[in-house]
Each structure stands twice: as structure tokens, then as C-alpha cells.
Amino acid sequence: MKSSSSEKCLNMGMVSPFFLSSLFLTFIFFLFILYSPDPLKVMSKHNLDQKNLVLVKPPHGDEVEKDCDLFHGRWVPDLGGSQYTNWSCRTIPESKNCFMHGRQDRDFLNWRWKPDKCDLPRFDPKTFLEFVRGKKLAFVGDSVARNHMESLLCLLSNVETPRDQYKDSDDRKRIWYFPNHDFTLMILWTKFLVSGEERVINGTSSGIFDLHLDKVDEEWTRDIPSVDYIIISDAHWFFRPIYLHDGGEVVGCVYCNEPNVTDHGVAFALRLALRSALRYINRCKKCRARVTLIRTFSPAHFEQGAWNTGGRCNRTTPFGEEEINLGGNEWEMRSMQVEEVEKARKGGQKRGNMFGILDVTKAMLMRSDGHPGEFWGNKWMKGYNDCVHWCLPGPIDIWNDFLMAVLRREAALIPR
């Protein structure tokens, strides 16, 4: 018994210091939590206004208020970061894989778009795949349209690994298939939406194009009849010398600098090309498209020069609303696109065609920090910065939050 009592006293002697040590450590941890800096306040080093220091609360359910304007708001800190990484998504092209090419800062991932009067639901890949089950969705446009598709592909890959179903010889038209949901995702490449060809002078490409505004480009229209959802975007190819043809006659130009030809500017040429594309969809009797969306102009952010004169985009945080220009060329093109969609919407009502807007222009004017810049690894264009496309992951992922909300809102209006 004495031995047992001795062991008991020994054990109690060991427990008491342990217990006191635990209390002491708990007290120290409490002080650390109480007086450690707020992670949001730490972000104030980026000169954020205090009114912006709010975390986004997810809305109740996955619906967005019907009367909410999703596209007017601001970027707010969101420590949740991206829903995927450049390691978890295997379909990111090298030119958009900014971390692989040496980008070190990651703060550009920790922001979320907050509409002024509501909340934007975060993209839910499971819900989206159920929504598009048995359907086909096509992005129609240039490499920025493809950039959007690549973002959506990464988000959906969190739920199901897609099958790479088709790639043309130029790797421009791509088709991906999600067999578990019988869902097809594709990019239909087109430079101008309408028919266009580059002039060849003495056997050399001239960089001058002829556009036929009364003829849509068959590279995308031949696939459209079987598509349920269409997302059209275009613009960046219009910033070059172009001659505009209608009915076989030259009706104007862009950057042509000829005394007998009127230079109407980029927005005018883009308007007529977009109008032709929307008119084609509205008149297409074989098309089964349920909803057609126009993604508005996505601005480039070259500073200290143009793309070929040393222009760069090396910012690491977003602009505030007071720092962007809503009266420039970018906003002019965005407003024109909205006007053309409204005309198409009115024209399509009798036919049951639905048209809507993915108005990304204001949000992306603030995100000069989201481009690949020098971190795109293009061996053919060393020394040039990419300030047109967007890193993956990156701020372009918010386009799919918009896409899901707008698609569901427009689809709800389709007569049954």
C-alpha cells in the first residue's frame, strides 16, 4: 500500500506542473488572439478605404435578387481566395499559368466583386452542371473568349474531369465533354464575328483586313444550330487597319488614314459586326439556342507604352472606383454592346429568343493586377507583356459568377 500511495503522490506531483503549464499557455494564446493584428487591417497597407474592408457574406441560397444590378459595385477583400489552383486544374494553358512562370505575389486572388445593393452568389460547379445537364454551351469570339472558357473549365473540373473531345489543327476550336452530365463546352473561334480576310501584298501578310459586314463568319455559325447557350464576345481584333464592306461596297474604315474613306472608329465597326451576329441568331430557324449572352468589352491595361513599345502591367492590387475612367473608349464600346443587345432582345421576343448581358467592363477596369504581364512564358514574343488576357486563377473567374447568375435569370423567363 505504501508503494501505491507513493506512486499516487508522484503522479499528482507530475500533473500539477503540467496543469499549471497548460493554464499558462492558454493565457498566452488568449492574449495573442486578443492583441494580434486583424488580417483585414493588415491589408490596409494597400491604401484601402475603411468602407471597403468588409468580408463578403454568401447570400442565402444560390439565387440572386431579380432586381439587383450585379454589375455596379466594388472589389472587396476575400481571404477565401480561388476555388482552384494552377496545380489542381490541369487544363490551364501555359500562357495563363502565371505562377508557373514566376509570378510571386498572390494578393490579386484575395478579392471578390460586391454589387452595391446585393450579394453575388459564388459559382457552384455542382449546381451549374445540373443546370446545363444534357445541354451545349458555346463561347464565340477571340482568345479572350477562350480565356473565359478556360476559367469555367477549371471551375467545373472540381466536380468532374472533362474529356478533351476535339481540337482543330490551329488549336482554336476546342470541344470538351462532361460525360456524367452529358454537357458539352466549346469555344468557336472568330476574329470579327463577320467574314474577314487579311490582305496579302507581295506574298506577305499586311496586317490590313477587309470585313464584310453583311456576311457572318461560318467558322462559328456552322456549329450554332445545335447549341443551347451562346456567349458572344469580341473586340480586340478591331484595333487594326480595317476596311468595312457592305453589299460589295466600301462603307468606311478603321485606322485606314485615306482621304476618300471615312474612318468610323472601332466602336462603329464592332457595332455593325455584332448587329450582324445577333441578327443571324434571331433569324436562324434551325437554331435551338435558349439564351444568348453578350460579354461586354474586357479592357487591356498597358501602362508606359503600347503592347509593342514597352507597355507593361505590373500592379498587384485593384484600382478603386475613383481611379477608373467611365468615359473612355472602353466604356463607349460597352455601352454600344448593351444597346445592341436591347435591340436584339426586342426583336427576339416574338421568336422566343432570349438575349442578355454579362457586363464585366466596370469590374475589369479596376483589375489591372490580374493580367499575366511578363509571366506568360511566350518564347516567340520575349520581352512583350500580356496585358490583355487574364491569369488563371485570377479575377476573370468572377465572370463565371456573373454567368451562372445571368443564365439562370434569363432561362427563368423562357416560355415553357
- Output the number of helix runs: 9
| Beta-strand content | 15-25%
**Strand/helix succession:** HHEEHEHEEEEEHEEEHEHEHH
Distance between the termini: 87 Å
Oligomer: single chain
- Neighbour order of strands in the largest sheet: 4-5-6-3-9-12-13
Low-confidence sequence ranges: 1-61
Give the overall form: globular
How can the largest sheet be summarized? 7 strands, mixed
Evaluate the radius of gyration. Answer: 26 Å
* Secondary-structure class: alpha/beta
Rounded average pLDDT: 86
The beta-strand count equals 13
Percent helix, as a range, is 25-40%
Family: Belongs to the PC-esterase family. TBL subfamily.
Subcellular location: Membrane
InterPro entries: TBL, TBL_C, TBL_N
Pfam families: PC-Esterase (PF13839), PMR5N (PF14416)
Descriptive report:
It is a single chain. This protein has 416 residues and is of the alpha/beta class. 29% of the residues lie in helices and 19% in strands. It has 9 helices and 13 strands. The strands form 3 sheets. A 7-stranded mixed sheet has the order 4-5-6-3-9-12-13, with helices on both faces. It has a 4-stranded mixed sheet with strand order 7-8-10-11, covered by helices on one side. Strands 1-2 form a two-stranded antiparallel sheet. A hairpin with a 4-residue loop joins strand 5 and strand 6. Helix 6 (266-283) packs parallel to helix 7. The longest helix is centred in the first third of the chain and has 34 residues, at 2-35. The protein is globular.
